[in-house]
Amino acid sequence: MGTAVMGALIAGLVAAPSGAAEPPDARAAEGPEQIVNGDFSAGTAPWWWTANSPAAVTDGELCADIPAGTSDPWDAIIGQDGVDLLAGEGYELSFTAHASVPVAIRTSVQMAVEPYTSEHLSTDRITTEPQTFTHTFTAKADNDAAQLGFQAGGHDRAYTLCLDDVSLTGGTEAPPHQPDTGSPVRVNQVGYLTEGPKGGTFVTEATQPLPWTLNAPDGSPAATGTTKVFGQDPTSRQHVHTFDFSRVTRTGEGYTVTIAGKTSEPFAIGDDLYARLRTDALAYFYHNRSGIEIDAGLVGEKYARPAGHLGKAPNQGDGDVPCQPGVCDYRLDVRGGWYDAGDHGKYVVNGGISVAQVMATYERTLTAGNADGAPLGDGRLRVPERGNGTPDILDEAAWQLDFLMKMQVPAGKTLAGMVHHKIHDAEWTGLPLLPHQDPMKRELHPPSTAATLNLAATGAQCARLFRPYDAAFADRCLTAATTAWRAALAHPAVYARADDNVGGGAYEDADVTDEFYWAAAELFVTTGQDDYRRHLLDSPLHGDAGKVFPRGGVWWGGTAGLGALSLATVDNGLTDAQLAQVRTMVTTGADRYAEDARTAAYGVPYAPEDNHYVWGSNSGVLNNMVVLGVAHDLTGNTKYRDALLGGLDYLLGRNPLNQSYVTGYGERDSRNQHHRHWAHQLDPSLPNPAPGSVAGGPNADIQDPVAQDKLKGCAPAMCYIDDIGSWATNEITINWNAPLAWVASFVDDLGGSGTTDPDPAACRVGYASDRWNGGFTSRVTVTNTGTEAISPWKLTWAFADDQRVTDHWGSRITQTGREVTAHPASWNGTIPPGGSVAFGFNGTSGGGAADPTAFALNGAPCTGG
């Protein structure tokens, strides 16, 4: 808790009269339980503690380390907020406590904000043996957000305080939680692309269509129409209508929609709406780096922080980490990488899919005709490595890849080449806790086949993408990948345990068929070796779109789709028939997602079985959107684009809760996500999550105490609360932000290209090369096969290896990494119908100098030949 809050607490406690507890004959305290998770069986949520007194659940108790030398009781506090009190009602407070040395603590029930008036204040003598304490009091005022605090400071020596079975009963049953959903007119609160689809949803019991009005930024009517009655939405149990205003293409900010006297949140129409989301979503990874100071010059003062887990007290550090007892006889330096989610753990299977999708965001700029690599290039993102000649997005990926390789079992050891599943604290820590303040022992957990294959896949992907920029790093990645692959083949069924969940998530996975498929795909694309191809073709997943692209989306425990997307988009050695089969898998999966979006009340491409929204449902939405985006890249079919944009609308406000799930985007955005150092809700001196952080979203299983208390009986798409204690619905994590970054990049590219669908038959490219020692000469002919002149023209492609253009004629050529753009010379800027332009260039290459086969003319894919 911040110093400002501590000062206020001091003021409130000093003003409270001594002995504020009611006598034992206070009104009978019969009534509902007001404390959530008082037995700590669900971990630490929603309990909090001051930063100087880190706590964790040990043997079923919450134990906190109270520092020496504090002056006052309120200098160290364990507490819970959100307690309901009713004036005149009696309450009974009870708890069990013991300490490592005999101490006196104070217990307060008070207002959580100024003037911090106390309803109860008592002092108890805690001994080394567990004792149960009981107090009764009568509330003097109504308060639906009071605070229970155990004030444990004011002692000369350090000690450990343990609490259990905390209970506060009395009052009346709190009314069911009613979410504030705002206007019943639901729209994308950020905005719609100029030429893209534009729609919304209206919550109403009306059974007949209703007129709607699109209000221009100046308040005048910009368009009108009538709603379509949808009926009962099974995901929200709401009766809804839908409306569409796609025909409106006039750009501007501050549009609204009004229906039956109700007006939506404001939104924009334009093409440049998502450039900031692209960079913010990627900045999430720098914010959550381990082992490096987060620089205020890159993220701003409120998000800057010292490096975490480098061994500087109170950290025990990640530079020399032992295994759990009995797991191994060595220690590893596993500094670096990304913190997974709200905790300070680093998990290979979650980190693998995350870094793969970050790299895929960049790789798409090399393979998709309308993708723009410039916003991801050197000097464009918030990373400290900017200016080193490598695209910034790859610099960010390298931070995680380096960590993944450090998790590999050393040569000569048992299970050499395998990869440790995870590294995290030996006990659960609570919120708030900045990484550099984490005092817990760090431990390596056993290797697993799933983690090993994650390294095989991401290492192979790394090798081909880093080759033009850092050949040594690319070689290291490929060596680690091939070593991991061989180790996985030798140990194909080493699984993480479901009960290995103390101090960090288990991430158990007893089916690694999908990881084998993903790893084989990436290794084949990178190396072309036939044994990887054979493994792919022999896999039971190959060709099965339903298993590779399930309705709920690709996830860390189902990664085959990542391999299929790479095979479908990155040049490789599959035969034409084999490539067609892979691409059919992609479009079949995308067809299903597009149909789900078309038939959904809120236009979302997510339809899990029985409408059962799961933990991280928003990541399911996003991963389905990635498949839709790739299908659009491959085919140009607008149904895929429209379904993807429908998913974006859902995430940014067109949903049953009228909630933007992305911090900093929309009028009603999530900002209290579960995170240990973005914890403003618990400590006002700490920030809310950084802009571009996506919440996990509705989860019908509501596993955490806050969700169970507030969301009981919720409809699947309504099972969400923007509360830091709700880790089951409101967590943020690297593997949810990774597909958000991919989608934001895709949509920003759409806006930049005007969202018009390319005509793949409008042009044809002829490309031929002569090779000589260390170099090549290439001749290119671009033919206009359409019926209208093309003027001006711009041809783009990407080399598959380390080719570099040295001089050129007949055009102006620029090259960034593997990406090449040819612009017309002063005399050939127009290609008439049936006409052609020709140009050429020389280049150098250290390899085979394979000719490119994918081209784009003015952003539209061209036929190669």
TrEMBL record:
List each copy of the CBM2 domain by range.
756-865
Annotated active site residues, numbered on this chain, are: 722, 731
Top-level division of the source organism's lineage? Bacteria
Write the record's keywords in alphabetical order, separated by commas.
Carbohydrate metabolism, Cellulose degradation, Glycosidase, Hydrolase, Polysaccharide degradation, Signal
Signal peptide: which range, if any?
A: 1-20
- UniProt keyword annotation of Signal present: yes
Q: What is its EC number?
A: 3.2.1.4
Q: Where is this region: Disordered?
A: 664-698
Pfam families tied to this protein: CBM_2 (PF00553), CBM_4_9 (PF02018), CelD_N (PF02927), Glyco_hydro_9 (PF00759)
User: What reaction gets catalysed by this protein?
Assistant: Endohydrolysis of (1->4)-beta-D-glucosidic linkages in cellulose, lichenin and cereal beta-D-glucans
- Gene3D superfamilies referenced in this protein's UniProt entry, alphabetically: 1.50.10.10, 2.60.40.290, Galactose-binding domain-like, Immunoglobulins
Similarity comment: Belongs to the glycosyl hydrolase 9 (cellulase E) family.
Q: Provide the protein name.
A: Endoglucanase
